[in-house]
Amino acid sequence: MTKEKFIVTASQMREIEARIFTAGMPVAALMEKVGGLIFQRLQAIISPGKCVGILVGPGHNGGDALVVARELHFRGYQVWIYQPFSKLKELTSQHFQYTQSLKIPCYQEISQLPSYDFLIDGLFGFGLEREITDSIAAAVNYFNNKNQPIISIDIPSGLHTDTGEVLGTAIQATYTFCLGLWKQGLLQEQALPYIGQAELIDFDIPLADIQAVIGDIPKIKRITQTTALSTLPLPRPLITHKYKQGHLLLICGSRRYAGGAILTGLGARASGVGMLSIAVPESLKMLLVSQLPEALIIGCPETETGAIASVQLPENIDLNSFTAIACGPGLTKDNISIIPEIIQCECPLILDADALNILAQIGTIPRLKQRKSATVLTPHTGEFKRLFPNIDHTDRIKAIQTAAQESGAIVLLKGARTAISNPQGNVWINPESTPALARGGSGDVLTGLLGGLLAQIMNKEILIEDIVATAAWWHSQAGILAAQTRTELGVDAFTLTQYLMPVLKK
Ligand SMILES: NC(=O)C1=CN([C@@H]2O[C@H](COP(=O)(O)OP(=O)(O)OC[C@H]3O[C@@H](n4cnc5c(N)ncnc54)[C@H](O)[C@@H]3O)[C@@H](O)[C@H]2O)[C@H](O)CC1
Ligand SMILES: [K+]
After folding, report:
1. Over the chain (506 residues), what is each successive 10-residue block's mean pLDDT?
2. DSSP per residue over 395-408, as a string?
3. Which terminus of the chain has a smaller tally of CB atoms within 10 A, N or C?
């Protein structure tokens, strides 16, 4: 059972480790085990004979680094240690003493330091308590400016374990080997420039100890491939028909933003939804038909500026004929009257882009409180602040928990680390993305994909918020895959839609 989905704070990690020690695991033995696992992983990155600098802090992060230093030394690497602290924790001090007996060179001044190929950062882990200052800060900045690869143990030194904020200064790691369980700070956007490529080094923490501290259903989860794929409507039942695979209504587009409707439709197509209806202004109807021949395109009366004047559905079809509705991409704010009408629908409703801007104008919370079925809001930061102007936006996770709780909606806040909260405050964080997605139109694709997935779950016991997390994961994985083959400059929104399927093939 992988531990990848758990996220812990420093105090939770301390509690979990205390349980392990109380159960009888000697601290020194755990440090030896962890150091050995780190060393094993390093051998795949640093070729033999290379010169490795080891930064040693006063606590057990430093202890881990000293175990690594010893093992690298015995395996023929050229190792030196930078250890500027006068007082070390007992276990760290013993390991330090042994490296000195082995004649591994140790320096206290950065001016004396030899050159190196790699640096192991064992200054601070989850025990960092205050800003890094003075000579330590100078050393961190010195190493950052050398532009040589740095591997941080547990967390880049200087980052706050829980919030990811930089305390004074922080190591800019090339790799971060997070130990045991993902630290919450590593999933915060502000930490991203410091983490580099992050991976988890599992040192067999018993599941019981994890659940004893963070509960059976953790409040904050990291979206993983396993959890995402488990909610996809795959494999399909053999006996089925198009209406059993959901019927999504998209309400989007305007003469000014016709492309938004197409991109949303293409996102919906990729979801595999059984039936897709797209309501657009009449003047866009033939364009959509040509781009999405399988969809039912509904031409609506339009305002003189070419926005949807009203959602006129065909005979004997009303808003409740659909198993999900998604509204907003390319809508413009020219006509706000359609939003109060759509909010009455009894199926899951996704509001994005201009639907959110209109909702903000007409009053987010009072309007949404009326809803009887699920609502998903998919703002980016700007839209989010307009929707919920009176909440504290300092901490993104707390902000979406408050917004979701106050509005009763599921809130997906887009960003480098998209975060989702349900009204009960359960949070999902998408741990991987790519700056390639920071382009007009990629949000439209997500709305269509998410709408199509929601339309398919209908009465299955899958949680709506799990599907929202899956859509965020799928969307970002398509961006990552596209960027791998086309660089981060090559992922326009249309291309993105073409990479959604290959993600599943992978
Ligand atoms: N608990 C274990 O046996 C294991 C822990 N793991 C590793 O150890 C660290 C956590 O160790 P801890 O000693 O609690 O804290 P740190 O090593 O992060 O060191 C903090 C140390 O430094 C002092 N300090 C804090 N802030 C500053 C500052 N700004 N300037 C100077 N000094 C500072 C503080 O007093 C502490 O003593 C964890 O990350 C793992 O790397 C192993 O993974 C498993 C065994
Ligand atoms: K570290």
Report:
1. 88 98 98 98 95 98 98 97 97 98 96 96 96 95 96 98 96 98 94 96 97 89 92 77 89 96 98 96 97 97 97 93 97 96 96 97 93 96 97 92 97 96 96 93 97 89 93 97 95 96 90
2. SHHHHHHHHHHHHS
3. N
Q: Distance, CA 109 to ligand 1 centroid (Å)?
A: 21
Distance 180 CA to ligand 1 centre (A): 15
Report the greatest alpha carbon distance in the chain: 87
Q: Return the pLDDT at 394.
A: 85
Instruction: Look up residue 156 and give its amino acid.
Output: P
Helix axes 207-214, 10-22, angle to 10 degrees: 130
Residue from 41, 54, 60 whose mutation best tests the ligand 1 pocket (most atoms within 8 A of CB):
60
In the reported structure, the alpha carbon of residue 177 is separated from the centroid of ligand 2 by a whole-number distance in angstroms of 9
Residue-level pLDDT at 461: 81
Q: Which of the listed residues 30, 129, 159 should we mutate to test ligand 1's pocket, taking the one with most ligand atoms within 8 A of CB?
A: 129
The alpha-helical segments, DSSP class H, found in 107-177 are 134-146
**Which of 89, 124, 182 best tests ligand 1's pocket when mutated (most atoms within 8 Å of CB)?**
124
Nearest ligand 1 atom to alpha carbon 122: 41
In angstroms, the CA 420 to CA 401 distance is 8
Residues 299, 305, 307, 312: what is their CA dihedral angle, to the nearest 10 degrees? -50
Q: Residue 1: its pLDDT value, please?
A: 58
CB 159 within 8 A of CB 129: no
The tokens describing 357, both together, are 């801007």
Residue 484's pLDDT is what? 95
How far apart, in whole angstroms, are the C-alpha atoms of residue 133 and residue 58? 15
CA 467–ligand 1 middle distance (angstroms):
38
**131 labeled binding residue:** yes
Which ligand approaches the C-alpha of residue 150 most closely?
2
Q: In what order do the strands lie in the sheet with 410-413?
A: 220-222, 427-429, 419-421, 410-413, 375-377, 349-351, 324-327, 247-251, 275-281, 296-300
Report in angstroms the alpha-carbon separations of 61 from 8, 300, 437, 501.
17, 63, 35, 42
**Considering only CA atoms, which residue is closest to atom 39 of ligand 1?**
125
Structure tokens, 506 = 């992978």
**Distance (Å, whole) CA 353 – CA 378:** 8
Is there a binding annotation on residue 185?
Answer: no
Ligand-binding annotation for 247, yes or no, is no
ipTM of the complex: 0.92
- Determine whether the annotation assigns residue 101 to a binding site: no
**For 152, which DSSP code?**
E
Pocket of ligand 1 (CB under 6 A): 17, 27, 30-31, 34, 57-62, 64, 89, 124-132, 136, 153-154, 179
Measured from the Cα of 179, ligand 1's closest atom is: 43
